[in-house]
Automatic annotation (TrEMBL):
It comes from Cognaticolwellia beringensis. It catalyses: 3',3'-c-di-GMP + H2O = 5'-phosphoguanylyl(3'->5')guanosine + H(+). PANTHER family: BIOFILM ARCHITECTURE MAINTENANCE PROTEIN MBAA, DIGUANYLATE CYCLASE DGCP. Residues 36-71, 144-214 form the PAS domain. This is cyclic-guanylate-specific phosphodiesterase.
């Protein structure tokens, strides 16, 4: 039985063969159209309806060029069709862009056949396959390819595609100049043919890892290229499906340099380029491990530049820095290759000596270090002399751990300083006891004021001529519940070093002046009060305000206060000291040079600074009745002081003979055990009242 559709076609006498139509009707993914000799539609399957949007009814009888052929192609199509009918020139199958009912482009792959029916009429059948999806996929693929190209262009990395045995199949380089060798030399070649052996090994082991672990593996390697050593990072990805390896290589030389710089900054001192504390201690730990393993000795030398602070303060930090650089240079000269010199900070250096046979090796190096510093430094056309104090701790005798050795070498260095500087000192156990006590004192001193452990004692001063009290010197006492009575000679330097002298000194001034006020009132005499000042206190900007306020508070004249300073204070030569002394003098406060004769005793200080009083140290008073030289010195000092308009106080007078001699020499005032030891405030009140 003929179908309805075929019947309609028959009506137009365009029938082809019925079974074929039945087949086309069953397929709707392909468009099949039949045309008569005038290109009128005689057959239009469901696939055509879907593809071109015309229903069969709409299409049937329409001309091909009016239906789905774009205007521009119309003439060509008509000519080709005519040519086929007339001359039997087949229209080849081709990809075409046709047009649907809505005027939209339709991409198809179009094949054509020509039948001649029973009436000898020619009928062309077009079989069109929709290429929209294919086109889209193609476009997508092209787009992706372009995108990849663009990415490749933008990324400076090198991409290599290789077989898992290391044979390079393909590559991509944004800049061909980045390639180690030209592409011809590596495409199709194995990496072993052109890369250094150790790099090939790295590649092979990491490729094996990437294949095994099925993840991206990265590693670093370096190549010696004509432009220098270049560092690379390679990332390996296994393209399992294709049994290929993708390697992405990046030049990381810059990062390497930055990392190296950061590493250098973390481990080396930026001024001298020597290993810093961190690295030096790390090396010390290594040296100790090695020394233990090989049963060897090692030594730690702790070095401190003597009076470096003075150089920095007086000549400026620039000169100080140059001196440090030059010192580092000299230290290196003395050392053996296997030794280490590091800078711990400030003017402190550390030297690590390994593989020593005995102490003498360290001693020889310490001596050489002192020697090499004997040559003056030439900085900015200036000759400077700088000396060293060296503390030595030897492994294993003075400790097994790096920290112990360092601490002990530091202790020994302090000993070298105490010995007069410009020398070395080997650590001994006794030093440790000293340092332990020092640390304990410093720790306890911090709370001493709050715990009211500090008390002022007063030692009366006498005028020789009148044999009467003229004032007293305030001397600090510290009685600690467990450490006992700690002498000021021991705790004052520690207070000075730790800065605690500032609050302690303020306490002393306030206490002493309050007592003076009470004492003056009670005896109705204008006594004076001598108070010791440490160098650090002169840097305290609040000091003078405190003195002025306290004097005003207790209603005491400026002239009743004497501030005692030692020559050491003046040796610093700093401008703030000069300014403070001038201001003290301008206020009318008396200035006294303490311990005269013990230090450098530079007479120029007496002329240079506004002193009122000179105190001869008790070490000379002790000897005046025993040896002529001390007596001559004291005699000369008194004469000289008087010629400069200074009043002379002799300290430490213990005997009547000393007093008589001092009186003969024209000394003005005296203090000492002969009259009274330093005593508590209350006792002094009684003592002086009894003499009234
Ligand atoms: N052998 C003997 N010694 C006598 C005699 N007469 C006095 N002395 C001692 O000689 C020292 C004189 O004090 P200095 O030279 O200023 O030396 C003082 C001073 O430099 C410092 N010092 C004491 N109190 C203070 C203070 O409040 N502030 C500061 N910055 N230093 C202080 O501590 C040093 C020692 O003080 P002290 O132990 O009290 O020692 C005192 C005193 O007790 C004597 O006849 N024979």
């Amino acid at each position: 039985m003929k179908s309805k559709k075929v019947v309609s076609a028959l009506n137009h006498q365009y029938v082809v063969n019925d079974p074929l139509h039945q087949l086309f009707d069953a397929v709707n993914v392909i468009s099949v159209q039949g045309y008569d000799e005038e290109r009128r539609v005689i057959y239009w399957n469901e696939g055509s309806e879907i593809l071109y949007g015309y229903s069969k009814e709409e299409a049937t009888g329409q001309k091909l060029e009016d239906l789905i052929i774009p205007e521009l192609m119309s003439e060509i199509v008509v000519d080709a069709h005519t040519n086929w009918i007339k001359n039997d020139v087949e229209i080849p199958a081709a990809e075409l862009t046709l047009r649907d009912k809505n005027g939209k482009d339709v991409s198809v792959f179009s094949s054509h056949v020509m039948f001649t029916n029973q009436y000898n009429n020619k009928q062309m059948y077009c079989i069109d396959i929709d290429l929209t999806d294919v086109r889209q996929a193609q476009e997508q693929a092209i787009f992706k390819e372009h995108m990849l190209e663009t990415i490749f262009e933008a990324i400076p990395d090198l991409f290599f595609l290789m077989e898992s045995d290391g044979t390079i199949i393909d590559y991509h380089a944004c800049d061909k100049g980045d390639l180690y060798i030209s592409p011809e030399k590596f495409i199709g070649k194995n990496i072993a043919d052109f890369l250094p052996q150790e790099v090939v090994q790295k590649f092979k082991s990491h490729i094996a890892k990437a294949v095994k672990q099925e993840k991206i593996i990265s590693f670093e390697y370096e190549l010696n290229l004509p432009k220098g050593l270049v560092y690379f990072e390679a990332r390996i990805s296994h393209l399992k499906k294709y049994k290929q390896i993708m390697i992405i290589v990046r030049d990381i030389t810059e990062q390497h340099k930055s990392a190296e710089l950061i590493r250098h900054q973390a481990y080396f001192d930026s001024l001298t380029a020597l290993p810093n504390r961190f690295l030096a201690l790390d090396r010390l730990t290594q040296i100790l491990i090695e020394a233990e393993r090989h049963h060897e000795k090692a030594a730690v030398l702790f070095l401190d530049l003597d009076d470096f602070k003075k150089v920095n303060d007086s000549l400026g930090h620039e000169v100080g820095d140059k001196l440090l650089i030059e010192s580092a240079h000299r230290l290196k000269q003395v050392l053996r290759k296997e030794d280490t010199v590091g800078r711990l900070g400030g003017d402190e250096f550390i030297i690590l000596l390994r593989r020593l046979t005995d102490h003498h090796d360290a001693l020889a190096i310490a001596e050489n270090l002192l020697k090499i510093f004997r040559t003056p430094f030439k900085i900015d056309n200036r000759e400077l002399i700088l000396t060293l104090s060296i503390g030595v701790a030897v492994y294993p005798e003075n400790g097994n751990a790096a920290s112990d050795l360092l601490r002990n070498a530091d202790t020994a260095m302090y000993q070298a300083k105490a010995l007069g500087r410009n020398t070395y000192s080997f650590f001994t156990k006794e030093m440790n006891i000293v340092i332990q006590r020092r640390l304990a004192i410093e720790a306890q001193l911090r709370g001493a004021l709050d715990r009211h452990e500090l008390e002022l004692y007063y030692q009366p001063q006498f005028e020789i001529r009148k044999n009467s009290i003229i004032g007293a010197e305030a001397l600090l006492r510290w009685n600690h519940p467990t450490l006992g009575n700690i002498p000021p000679d021991e705790f004052i330097p520690i207070a000075e070093h730790s800065g605690l002298i500032v609050p302690i000194g303020q306490y002393v001034i306030e206490q002493a002046l309050r007592f003076l006020s009470k004492w003056q009132l009670s005896d109705q005499k204008s006594y004076t009060m001598a108070v010791n000042l440490s160098p650090r206190q002169l840097r305290d900007t609040e000091l003078l305000n405190l003195i002025k306020n306290t004097l005003a508070d207790v209603n005491i004249s400026f002239g009743s206060l004497e501030l005692e300073i030692t020559e050491g204070v003046l040796m610093n030569g700093q401008s703030y000291i000069n300014e403070a002394l001038i201001e003290i003098n301008a206020l009318g406060i008396k200035l006294s040079m303490d311990d005269f004769g013990t230090g450098y005793s530079s007479l120029s200080y007496l002329r240079q600074y506004p002193f009122d009083i000179l105190k001869i140290d008790r070490s000379f008073i002790n000897g005046i009745t025993l040896n002529k030289s001390d007596c001559d010195l004291v005699k000369a000092t008194i004469a000289m002081s008087h010629s400069l308009g200074l009043t002379v106080v002799a300290e430490g007078v213990e005997t009547k003979e000393q007093l008589t001699l001092l009186s003969d020499l024209g000394c003005d005032f005296v203090q000492g055990y002969y009259f009274s030891k330093p005593i508590p405030a209350k006792q002094l009140l009684d003592f002086s009242a009894a003499l009234l």
